[in-house]
Amino acid sequence: xxxxxxxxxxxxWFADDGDRxxxxxxxxxxxxxxxxxxxxxxxxxxxxxxxxxHWTRVRDALVRDDGPSFDDVATWTGSVVRHPxxxxxxFYTGCSLSPDGTTNIQRIGWASSPDLMTWTRNPANPVAVxxxxxxxxxxxxxxxxxxxxxxxxxADPDGDGWHMLITARTPQGPADDRGVVGHxxxxxxxxxxxxxxxxxxxxxxxxxxxxxxxxxxxxxILLFSCLASDVSAARVGTGTTGGVWCAxxxxxxxxxxxxxxxxxTDDEWYSGRLVRRRDGSWVLLAFRHSDPRDGxxxxxxxxxWPVRWDGRRLEFxxxxxxxxxxxxxxANAR
Length: 334
Description:
disordered C terminus; mainly beta; hydrolase; Glycosyl hydrolase family 32 N-terminal domain-containing protein; 334 residues; 4-stranded antiparallel beta sheet; Glyco_hydro_32_N; Tachylectin-2, Chain A
């Protein structure tokens, strides 16, 4: 398990340079006192490993920028991809405050690197911002922040540029059921164009966090996380908890069966990420969200759990994370 003695560690993502796995993670000093305050002190740390188990910390990737800037409060979750010219791109969430200084505004930018170690911000950041008519903005007053974050970037399967999946909300429907997979497209990773969501609201989630799409054992799947507090009232059933979810997909770009999502973990673990090992097998990692004894925040990234697609659902191979409560909603998975 990857932990830091002086800091909380939570959301994370990976890059593989062919020799080593690179772990990028959010962290904040425990000196801030209250765990919820970590969100407004978050920086992006960096560690390397040969086996996804033993990690060596290296220099941080990014910290918040000087204000005024779209990321002058904190730098949040993202993804890393490599351009065909060899340049690495780190896409990340920048957080700043609303004009009255009370509410978190989330926008997306990028930094680039020749070696995954030294990162230079794009001077034209941000490159993706919540906008009507497709995406809910703070002005509507329906949610506690302007949710537009967690960029997951991947190459188009047919070679038509690049796609970005985004944690976003639409302006339509019940306030607790507006979570969608936001979408932007780029021809070159540098310039981005907002597109309509790749999913519809009404699937039971106020927001779908840290999305990821992969093809596991020949089956496209969408991975996301959602806390119990963000599951819609219409979906809540006895024993429903937050955690990591997996939805079937027709392709990497959907349609996604979010209403059929399978819950993989309860709220002890969160922000799951799929990673392919060098032997081609898949593993899942997640961060330790809550202590099962008292529900307090923990932090720290798990060791890898092997997973596979069994023809019907994603399953853990061998011993996976224990799910402590009955998951009523998982009966809908297929």
